[in-house]
Amino acid sequence: MEQHRFFDTYAFFTKGQESFSQVVNRLMDSRVITECKSLKVFPQTFGINYLLAFQASEEQVVRELAYRRILHVPANETGNTIRGHPEGLSQIVQHEGEEMYFVNLLDTDLVKIKHILQYRKDRYELNGRKVLVLTHPGLRPEHERLLQHVHHVHFLEVGGEILDTALRNQK
């Protein structure tokens, strides 16, 4: 019998670094990560500001970074899943002259982390693209811990000014 879900996307908001880490660890060790499309964990204040600024739109985040010339999105890359790319790694960008898969982890989406973990060394050596992970100074230690065994990951840290600018532009 097929199990029906009411939602495919979940977001958890936590208070404090310890509860953030506990929720992340508990969910990473559960099977729920394989049963949904998105499983986001936010520190409460950051998460609210992120959602207000970008309205959960990956495209808005990429546009803001491209506008600031932090990364470049090649014209032929749409962000849609393209055959041959590893699952969950379909957005290609250029950063510091190198073509990479782009993953926005400002939302600490554990499904995205699972996709990065599944992009193993042999697959990386086959296509040669590293993973560029967008993170925030307050989230980076947790992201680095979760991805510590993936050596073809490059972290791109953005501060609160990105959120502040996006929030001002919403008004």
Q: Could you characterize what this model shows?
A:
This protein has 171 residues and is an alpha/beta fold. It has one domain (9-170). Helices cover 39% and strands 20% of the residues. The protein has seven helices and six strands. The strands form two sheets. A four-stranded mixed beta sheet has the order 3-4-5-6. The protein has a two-stranded parallel ribbon with strand order 1-2. α2 (44-54) packs across α7. The longest helix has 12 residues, at 17-28. It is globular. The N and C termini lie far apart (48 Å). Mean pLDDT is 85; it is low at 78-82.
Provide a brief overview of the structure.
The protein is an alpha/beta fold. 39% of the residues lie in helices and 20% in strands.
Give the topology, please.
Layout (H helix, E strand, L loop, with lengths): L8 E6 L2 H12 L9 E6 H11 L3 H10 L24 E4 L2 E7 L5 H9 L2 H7 L2 E6 L4 H7 L6 E5 L2 H11 L1
Helix pairs in contact: 2-7
